């Protein structure tokens, strides 16, 4: 890759997967998979285009739009659209690469992809955002379809933006099909899709807690730190509270709210924050207006601020550093799982894996995002199935399917880790190794069967 420009986010994701596989017995048992890794690390297709749109002053603006169609061996490309000024090819390749194996772990027929634009919705009027969405989709519509590529929302792309893009797609191609997921409930969306990533994360961690404790413990009585304050963080917090846990933090890009001693984040506060997010307000405004017993701390993340049993990073990539991982481990945290994609740095993962090996059950057990946060794309896959069948399942039916998918995902990671990275006596299996190997093996086998590599 030396002839390519530096792509730090993608390179981090690639090396994290490759190093895990190389330190397992997978290549020893299947030496031909080395070639599969080389092939799978290059996208099948990268689409880059300009998006021109008119602001409220009548002036033409231009942004860069992208779609990375990474791998379709298991099904149509599937992955979100991100509208954020930091969007570039490195970020989207990292997200698309992770998405391949995350989607494989759901057990559903979905390939991996990612897309978006360097458009910043902040400071834009609703009319300007609508115009951008329409202009973006007019170009993207050439490259997607229900059996080709099915995008979803991501940062900066809520159900509102999905609606505007779906309307443009429908009128542009003169076809109603399940080409986007995260749609409105009255026109093809699945129930509990907004909740799915957060719920799925908590279901996955619940299996971690039960396995580690021999079935004696659950979220009941556990103290939980959560970062972020978007959909994933909100619904993870609500599910933790429902299962008897205590949530002590939420955050945004400017700082964190920490519950005061003896108190906790309540469902009422989560709902208040959800309303603030719709209006694009900062959590700092809670410092003066909230009647809840919380303290706002500017410029910090939760990991050094509280002593907890469980940490759930749900904001963005690389939000837990090696130093913060050390702080979590030394303060007694037992479980860390990512609601965000690649939420932990390489150094943080090394800290967690080291404590898992050295301290056995007293160390930190880490659940990687490609497994732990797969609930969102799993329900997107269920939305695709409902659209194809022209039916709609109840929220109870979808939730039961989500629970089953997350349980199967956890067991797959667990058993694969035991097989290819045999844990020492008293040591919990490496879920990061299990997730990487299980996801990669499934994709590699499909690619081989279809003649993508030999």
From TrEMBL:
Residues engaged in binding substrate: 78, 99, 102, 153, 380
One of the protein's GO biological processes: glutamate biosynthetic process
Active site: 114
Signal peptide (UniProt feature, chain positions): none
Site (Important for catalysis): 154
Sorted UniProt keywords: NAD, NADP, Nucleotide-binding, Oxidoreductase
Residues noted as binding NAD(+) in the record, renumbered to the chain: 197, 231
Superkingdom of origin: Eukaryota
GO cellular component terms listed in the entry, alphabetical order: cytosol
Pfam families documented for this protein: ELFV_dehydrog, ELFV_dehydrog_N
Residues in Glutamate/phenylalanine/leucine/valine/L-tryptophan dehydrogenase C-terminal domain copies: 190-451
InterPro entries reported in the protein's UniProt record: Aminoacid_DH-like_N_sf, Glu/Leu/Phe/Val/Trp_DH, Glu/Leu/Phe/Val/Trp_DH_C, Glu/Leu/Phe/Val/Trp_DH_dimer, Glu/Leu/Phe/Val_DH_AS, Glu_DH, Glu_Leu_Phe_Val_DH, NAD(P)-bd_dom_sf
Catalyses which reaction(s): L-glutamate + NADP(+) + H2O = 2-oxoglutarate + NH4(+) + NADPH + H(+)
RNA-binding in keyword set: no
Subunit-level organization: Homohexamer.
NCBIfam families for this protein: PRK09414.1 (NF006929)
Assigned protein family: Belongs to the Glu/Leu/Phe/Val dehydrogenases family.
PANTHER family: NADP-SPECIFIC GLUTAMATE DEHYDROGENASE 1-RELATED (PTHR43571)
Record-given protein name: Glutamate dehydrogenase
